[in-house]
Write a structure and sequence with these properties.
The complex is a heterotrimer of chains A (201), B (809) and C (165). Chain A is of the alpha+beta class. Among the domains of chain A are: 2-77, Ubiquitin-like (UB roll) (Roll); 130-187, no CATH class. Helix content of chain A is 26%, strand content 15%. In chain A, α2 packs antiparallel against α3. The termini of chain A are far apart. Chain B folds into six domains: 1-133, Rossmann fold (3-Layer(aba) Sandwich), CATH 3.40.50; 145-255 and 399-471, FAD/NAD(P)-binding domain (3-Layer(bba) Sandwich), CATH 3.50.50.60; 272-390, FAD/NAD(P)-binding domain (3-Layer(bba) Sandwich); 482-540, Alpha-Beta Plaits, CATH 3.30.70.20; 558-753, no CATH class; 762-809, Arc Repressor Mutant, subunit A. Chain B has 27 helices and 33 strands. A five-stranded parallel sheet of chain B has the order 7-6-5-11-22. Chain B has a five-stranded parallel sheet with strand order 13-20-14-15-16. Chain B has a four-stranded parallel sheet with strand order 2-1-3-4, sandwiched between helices. The longest helix of chain B has 28 residues, at 734-761. Chain B is elongated. In chain C, a hairpin with a 2-residue loop joins β3 (129-131) and β4. In chain C, α1 (2-13) runs antiparallel to α2 (22-33). The two termini of chain C are 21 Å apart. Chain C folds into two domains: 2-61, no CATH class; 73-152, Glutaredoxin (3-Layer(aba) Sandwich), CATH 3.40.30.10. Chain C is 45% helix and 11% strand. The chains are: A alpha+beta (201), B alpha/beta (809), C alpha+beta (165). Chain A binds chain B through residues 13-14, 16-18, 21-22, 24-27, 29, 36-38, 134, 138-141, 167-171, 173-175, 179, 182, 185-186, 195, 197, 199-201, and chain B through 15-16, 42-43, 45-49, 51, 71, 73-75, 77-78, 426-430, 434, 436, 451, 458, 461-462, 465, 570-571, 575, 578-579, 582-583, 627, 629, 665-666.
Chain lengths: 201, 809, 165
């Protein structure tokens, strides 16, 4: 049994749990976007940051991937944590103007406008990788992956055309936290437009 | 019934996504008495929750779990993986999407939501009581991989297998590379650049100790399943037959290339087809004079393979230009529709060798005349002519000759006159047995030699992987596959005709090949076979009809007078409902969702049972028929729904109480429109009055759907779309069929109802009593009764010169 | 081209069939063929066991991998400081008009690939355009036009039609 504190409350945990799991198990709410229980965590969106304090020293960590350890003091609502959340949400508002879900989440934390240049009004994908991970880990097909890099990075099937790899199960659409997958779903499923096929291991 | 099912239910709070919206305390209270353990957890799916579940399973020795949480499509795999060490196998864990089907989509109070959740969970509990898990079986591959069909892909497959150190038997005419290359043009003309590779492969195979050559002979019979096949070969000359054991089977089949019809002027002398030109060049050297290639694939109806012919023509034209030192003129005449995709290097060569490319207007067909061919120019619309000394046409491609025979023996023919690639189930990869494992070559679908060799290699690699997995004990037989009860199977073969995965074959043995056998490594678990079998000899393991019936009966029993049940298939209805949930779209709470892998596996008796138990309405929500992931599941379901509709009408109930619909998982708003429209209909109809007479009719409906082999056989015999003519004698007139089927149904339903009355009364009844009980004319009733007596269903005797009827026994 | 398939097959065999050899294979294929065709991508995916989608993801991630074939002739306009001052940008635009492509693209008949590059180290000859490894000094639109015409009429072409019409 591991003992730690979350917001000054003593909490028991076991080796192998993450801070997020321990917090949620004890009813402490931490917002997340790129996290889903069905797939491995990736720590991409940084919305789940929490502050670890030890006397004067403190650091921010991503709770979805940080393992529990004896004696940690975890705080989920400090000014630093709230600041990070607001920055992240403001940036997400700019990156995904087409997502209702992000707008709602941002509003919940008091973020309604963004100072950053916004992408096209329809853009909703935050490249969180949940769709890629669910297709690989749960479905076992790896029909989609990220393509290109930097600001051009997006999600797609090979050659951005439907192939026979996708079986149109819709797991990616269900897991997508922003509604972006629903918009591009038809570029992935559909009559295969290439003759390429994929070996299943 | 399953012995000692110990059921645990775990209610997930899911943060704030389920708990405040659904009163979990009330839910727990409602369920506690029905199950062995019921617990509320903050998050069932996180490590802490999983540990709690494992603790409860161990403490209470639970062997069936129901998790009331979120989408099973996403989450179930995690539970199965984490709980596998506790001997909880696929089928023993079920999930109810309380979050997405109730909490997120309802505007009702938490108590009402809890009540709805209780209904769905209790129904799942009822199913779990009936569920009898099969043992986890390790698949064994007993024997070498046998490569049949004599196709060129076979060499590549043999090489791949030998590289992975898997023994194989190769059925082929020759291992002499020269001999093989001499015959390549028969099936793959114009592919000189692949010849060195083919030569290397054949040589490697000839030298490999892992490859055993089988003498040339024809495959005449195949029996057994993956892991244990018995193949019978017959020597064409001596007539001797020999049997071989195989662990896995691979068919390497090449398409047959034949000359196009006489309207193209083919004469084998000055008008050739592509393979012939190549053979002629090999025998007599480069032709002199002018060679014109007419790439006429569109005109012979094979437009989709034009690229193969174009590339072959170019390759041969190039060869001629190079070897004749640019003396022999070559022209390639092609339909303007064809894209000509040469690489930049090829274009450079083209320019250097001055091979002429002449496109013609697709609207005007070129005409072949003696030594000249006319065509319509693209720009000027004037008819032009080209002289030729040799005219070379595109080949007609088809599955023919020995390849066709082998394909038939292997059960690979889906439609005659088409290539062997089937309309295949689009399912998750854990359903084994995809086509690429056992079929390679241009007979599958026309392709070039490079692709054929690649397909062969792929098939070899897949088989090698399967053998390796089996060898290390890691190849498990999938748990969602069908199984035939040999005691019940009479060998009618309906299941084999309906099956879309090719997993059903005949079990040879004493009595001569009657009962069907399912190959569990090929079966994709579509289940329409089980729903169709007239004798109910097939079951879909771990997800049986009885289980489904138990769930539906339990749910129907709890429904209010205007609730509806919706069966959503795993590819259409269910994900659409899940996505409505993730988007938080609200809809009518009277709609109760049950997930099912394919609506094609719903037995009509299950549909009838729903009404018997009190469901006001039943909706089958699948995919679009052309998009069914199990190929024809929706079409089959249509016929079964039609049966129930007719029975409802015969009983005097409204036939709209059961309906078929389709949903697109990416359009949850339309899903809502669909289910609410159905709900409206049912709401306006109200429930079926539970009078004794009505209940008797519903019971008769159920009995007929479940046990009447005549109707079930009739139904499964026509589970094909009216325009399909794959089976001779199956073309049917839509109206005539419907009338004939209805007539048969009227007879059988009357008999079912009579039987029902006699069983209930438990004493002999006279004609008048029976007719009055059913409100039917005596004339019709006596006909039915006499037939039943003839068939031994009931007995009759006379008293005071009046007939009395009673059940036998 | 006829040897290309052969050579790519041989490249496959030089590496073991494991995921870690993906990038090596892609680089070697690119060296040989100038680009990675969909068929090559498929072969690499099968050989290494990396799902096709992921191989494609890696290939698009690195800019040095090309997924489109290059033209027969490579035209590179230098946009280093000296050349830029001497009108490199204008030369680029004129070439774009002349060839009907954007910089970075290949012409439809696959004869020319136009691209802009950083300083090629021949500043005294600015503006410089490198055509197939030949440095063209002090280029003007007219000089380039002449050069392009020579390349276009490299082989007498047929007038009737065909893949280059």
């Amino acid at each position: 049994m591991i003992t730690l504190t979350i917001n000054d409350q003593e909490v028991k945990a076991r080796k192998g749990w993450t801070l997020l799991e321990a917090a949620r198990h004890h009813g402490v709410d931490i917002p997340t976007l790129c996290y889903h229980e069905a797939v491995a965590p990736s720590g991409a969106c940084r919305l789940c940051m929490v502050e670890l304090k030890d006397g004067d020293w403190s650091k921010l960590v991503a709770s979805c991937i940080y393992p529990v350890a004896d004696g940690l003091n975890v705080y989920t609502e400090t000014p630093k944590v709230q600041n990070v959340r607001r920055w992240v949400l403001e940036m997400l508002l700019a990156a995904c103007p087409g997502s209702e879900e992000i707008a709602t989440l941002a509003r919940r934390y008091g973020v309604t406008t963004t100072r950053f240049a916004t992408k096209s009004a329809n853009e909703a994908c935050m490249v969180c990788g949940l769709c890629v991970r669910v297709c690989e880990e749960v479905v076992g097909l790896s029909a989609i992956a990220t393509v290109d890099r930097g600001v051009h990075k997006r999600v797609g099937a090979p050659y951005l055309k439907p192939t026979d790899v996708c079986v149109a199960c819709g797991s990616c659409v269900t897991i997508c936290p922003t509604g972006a997958m629903a918009k591009i779903f038809d570029t992935v499923r559909g009559e295969p437009q290439t003759k390429l096929t994929q070996l299943q291991a | 019934m399953a012995a000692n099912a110990k059921i645990g239910v775990f209610l997930c709070q899911c943060g704030s996504k389920i708990d405040p919206l659904v009163d979990l305390q009330a839910l727990q209270g409602a369920l506690q008495t029905d199950v062995d353990h019921c617990e509320i957890l903050p998050y069932t799916c996180l490590q802490p929750g999983l540990e709690s579940i494992m603790h409860a399973v161990a403490a209470h020795r639970l062997n069936r779990l129901i998790i009331a949480g979120c989408e099973s499509r996403l989450m179930l795999k995690k539970f199965e993986k984490e709980l596998a060490p506790l001997d909880l196998l696929k089928g023993q864990i079920d999930m109810i999407n309380v979050r997405g089907h109730i909490a997120a989509v309802s505007e009702q109070t938490p108590e009402q939501n809890a009540a709805k959740a209780a209904k769905l969970i209790k129904a799942a509990v009822a199913e779990m009581h009936v569920m009898s898990p099969t043992a986890q079986i390790r698949a064994k591959i007993d024997g070498p991989v046998v490569i049949v069909g004599n196709g060129l892909a076979g060499y590549a497959a043999a090489q791949a297998l030998a590289d992975k150190e898997v023994d194989c038997l190769l059925c082929t005419d020759t291992l002499d590379a020269d001999a093989v290359l001499r015959k390549v043009s028969d099936h793959y003309p114009g592919e000189g650049e692949q010849h060195p590779r083919l030569r290397r492969i054949v040589t490697a195979v000839a030298q490999s100790p892992r490859v055993t050559l089988m003498p040339p002979s024809e495959l005449v019979h195949l029996a057994g399943v993956t892991g244990d096949y018995t193949l019978t070969f017959q020597d064409a000359q001596t007539g001797d037959s020999r049997q071989y054991r195989a662990g896995a089977l691979l068919a390497a089949l090449d398409a047959e290339l034949v000359p196009p019809g006489p309207q193209f002027g083919y004469d084998g002398d000055s008008v050739l087809y592509q393979p012939e030109l190549e053979r002629r060049i090999r025998h007599s050297g480069t032709p002199k004079g002018k060679v014109v290639f007419w790439v006429n694939d569109h005109e012979i109806g094979m437009g989709e393979f034009d690229q193969l012919s174009v590339r072959a023509a170019w390759s041969m034209a190039r060869h001629i230009r190079e070897t004749s030192n640019l003396k022999t003129e070559t022209i390639i005449l092609y339909n303007e529709k064809m894209p000509v995709s040469l690489s930049s290097a090829q274009r450079a060569v083209n320019r250097k060798l001055k091979i002429a490319w002449v496109p013609y207007d697709q609207a005007v067909r070129p005409m072949v005349q003696d030594r000249c061919i006319t065509f319509c120019g693209l720009k000027d619309h004037v008819e032009h002519e080209i002289d030729w000394d040799l005219l070379v046409l595109s080949p007609l491609r088809r599955v023919g000759g020995q390849a066709l025979q082998t394909a038939k023996t292997l059960g690979l023919i889906h439609k005659p006159d088409r290539f062997l690639t089937g309309h295949h189930a689009k399912v998750r990869p854990e359903m084994v047995g995809r086509e690429a494992t056992y079929l390679a070559g241009s007979a599958r679908y026309p392709c070039d030699l490079q692709e054929t060799l690649n397909q062969g290699r792929r098939a070899g690699v897949k088989n090698a992987a399967m053998v390796a997995k089996a060898g290390s004990g890691e190849l498990f037989v999938p748990r969602t596959v069908c199984w035939v009860d040999p005691e019940l199977c009479i060998g009618c073969g309906q299941c084999q005709e309906l099956c879309d995965c090719g997993g059903i074959s005949v079990d040879a043995g004493a009595g001569g090949g009657l009962p069907r056998v399912v190959d569990p490594m090929v079966c994709t678990g579509g289940g329409t076979c089980a729903a169709a079998c007239p004798y109910r000899a097939l079951i879909l393991q771990n997800f049986t009809n009885d289980q489904r019936e138990a769930r539906l009966a339990a749910l129907a029993n709890q429904l209010e007078h205007d609730d509806v049940v919706v069966f959503g298939c795993a590819w259409g209805g269910l994900p659409a409902a899940d996505n409505a949930g993730t988007q938080g779209l609200k809809y009518d709470p009277r709609i109760h969702m049950i997930g099912i892998p394919c609506i094609g596996q719903l037995d009509p008796c299950v549909m009838a049972r729903a009404f018997l138990e009190g469901a006001p309405g039943l909706l089958l929500l699948g995919c679009l028929p052309e998009e069914c992931h199990h190929s024809y599941g929706v079409d089959h379901a249509w016929n079964r729904v039609s049966l129930i509709k007719k029975l409802l009408t015969l009983s005097g109930f409204n036939r709209r109480r059961i309906a078929l619909a389709h949903a697109d998982l990416n359009k949850p708003e339309e899903f809502i429109r669909t289910v609410e429209s159905f709900s409206q209909t049912i709401s306006s109809l109200g429930p079926i009055d539970r009078t004794a007479a009505n209940r008797a009719k519903l019971a008769a409906m159920y009995d007929l759907a479940k046990n009447n082999t005549r109707i079930r056989a009739l139904l499964s015999a026509v589970l094909r779309r009216p325009w399909e003519n794959a089976y001779t004698g199956d073309q049917r007139h839509a109206l005539e069929y419907d009338r004939d089927f209805s007539d048969a149904l009227v007879e059988e339903f009357l008999q079912a109802r009579l039987l029902g009355v006699l069983k209930a009364e438990k004493r002999p009844l006279g004609l008048t009593e029976l007719s009055q009980a059913l409100h039917e004319e005596e004339r019709r009733v006596i006909e039915a009764l006499m037939e039943m007596v003839r068939e031994g269903l009931i007995a009759s005797r006379h008293e005071n010169r009046r007939p009395y009827f009673a059940c036998v026994n | 081209m006829e040897q290309l398939n052969e050579e790519i097959e041989q490249i496959m065999q030089t590496y073991p069939g494991k995921p870690e050899y993906l990038i090596f294979l892609l680089q070697d294929i690119q060296d040989k063929a100038g680009y990675i065709s969909p068929e090559s991508m498929q072969l690499v995916s099968e050989h290494t066991g990396v799902p096709l989608t992921q191989a494609y993801s890696v290939a698009t991630f690195y800019q040095s991998f090309r997924l489109e074939p290059r033209g027969d002739h490579d035209i590179r306009v230098c946009l280093g400081t000296a050349c830029h001052l001497k009108g490199g940008q204008r030369i680029t635009e004129e070439l774009e008009r002349r060839l009907n492509v954007q910089a970075g693209e290949t012409t439809e008949d696959q004869r020319f690939t136009l691209s802009t590059v950083n300083c090629v180290g021949a500043c005294a000859l600015a503006p410089v355009v490198v055509v197939d490894d030949e440095y063209e000094p002090h280029v003007t639109a007219k000089k380039l036009d002449r050069k392009l015409k020579i390349l276009e009429h490299e082989f007498d072409e047929n007038k009737e039609g065909g893949p280059d019409a």
